[in-house]
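Exercise: predict the fold of this chain.
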Amino acid sequence: MNSIKKLLILSMFAGLAATTQAKVVDVIDDIRVNPTVINNYQTVNIEMDWSKKPDFTIDIGDTFSVALPTQMETTNVFGIDMLNAANQKVGECDLVMQTITCEFTANNVYSGSIAFTRSFYDGSVTAPNTVVPTVYTVDNNPVAQIDMTVSPALVDPVEILVKFGHATNGIAVGQKIDWYVRANCRGDTINNFQLSDQLNVAGHNMLTNTISITEGTCDGSGFNWERDLVLDGVVNAGTTQDYVTSWDVNTGEIALTMNNATDKAYEIIFSTEITADQAAWQNEVTLTGDGVLESRDYAVEKQTVIIIGNQQGTVAGVVFLDTNNNGVADNGEGIANVDVVVTDSSGTPITVQTDSNGAWSSPVRVGQVEVSVDTADPDIPSGVLQSVGNNPTILDVPDDTLVSTQDGFAYSMGTASGVLFLDDNGNGIAENGEGIANVNVVVTDSSGTTIVVSTNANGNWSTPVRAGDVEVRIDTVDPDMPASVAQSVGENPTTLSVPVNGTAETSDGFVYQMGTATGIVFLDANGNGGFDPGEGIANIDVVVTDSSGTPITVFTDSNGNWSTPVRAGDVTAAVDTTDPDMPAGLESIWGDTLTMTVPPNGTAGVAAGYRPGGSVTTPVQPQPVPAMDIRGLLILLALMLGTGWLITRRQAIG
């Protein structure tokens, strides 16, 4: 391409560039305000997100504007940075009256945000928690509506009673007292502050030309004084007339009115002299002003400092149902939608509501704050009592400080307890050494909650439960429960009536189940392998050992019979063949030691047969006699006493 063509093309592009003009762009995506629950005159944070739309590019010099709601303050602010997503400056904004206008200082930017603060005031708000819709517009077209929940300012006029004098000895004649009254905005607006009173009480004289005002600005943390003003009704040169004053030396009346003194602080100084003897704390002065915060009396210096300002803190708390009774609000225990009434030092009650986690918070005027949970609220479970915190409770809230409280509730509780024991001596009382350890006890309280506890080494158990009817069940199949026992004391399951903050007890006693072991010792003289009348051997010792392992020695009667109560289960009967009443030269037919299984509340028996040595008869082994009822016992006795006792392989005798 020749140089002429190149020059022509470059000239064309240069002309296009020269004709490119800055444009108004539509970039606003989202507008956020924090917090949205505020008091009048409170400062809020405003953040605006912006981004490039697909149909255009952003060039240097492009602009956009957003009109803020009329409730925002009108003070001008210049040089607010626009930042992109990488936190780099890509533009600058000016805030004039209620409109923020931004200009891009970089090309081809895509997205970012603007953040700034404004003070909010709506004069129509007269009741706490008034919903105020606020609208943000671009070219008179709404782009966002944010509902603010607004309460009256914390600077409502209040009165404070100031007493001066010595705490014990009074004040001497001629004593001078300097008064300091400080109106401290602490970064907020002082609105319509008034100080007015008579100071020429009996024996108390205002000193001429001692009153003055020190004016300053607020830097957010305290006073930043600029100049002194003499309170003569005339504003000094170079100052702004944010206040109107008057002072009548003859009457001692002082009046100071501050009109919307944004970001200003004032210190008023005046002096008085005691002209008559004063009793301890005799004189009183009442001051009226917005946001009276504190009165401090100095007995030695005899000066009273009254700090008046728009200081505030925050109270917060949680309302919860302490289901595990550990005194702490755990996850999932918060009670939602419960009204909490907060009354700060202004005396104005504010009602807030707990969120889904039971939490709540509210800005308050510094000083004493009363917090009262509405226990009649339908969202508070019925039948509960407060277990954590006090209701109402009083909190001391310093400036710029969060003070928290907790209100825990729990169902009315009591204690269920008991003892599990093996009643070895059968007296129906749990005595030392009789407790059964490590057995599970299943407790179901009035809420339907099941609790499993284990008995201790002494058989005792205990557990907190919700008051009311409580079911207690002993796990009788627990491996630590002795076998073959039956309950002899109490019932299983049983129901206890547990009183609120009280204890209900139960006692569960068990005994081993019993039965009867019987038998006969006989000499099979005729060798027929069975018992016949007259063959019984009398006075023979038989050692009976039941399932407890305890041996019991019995002896046969004149018919060779024996019987004894035993613990149910496997029982052995051993014939003492060395007994002197045992005939000599006999041999056992079935053995000297025989086994039977005795059922609970039943009877089992065995027969021990003997024969002379060398007999050729080979009888069969006897079978243990099965459990039998009273009818079976009668038949057995008839056989033993009547027709003889024939033992075969098909018939066991007991």
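Check your answer against the key: The helical segments are 3-19, 630-643.
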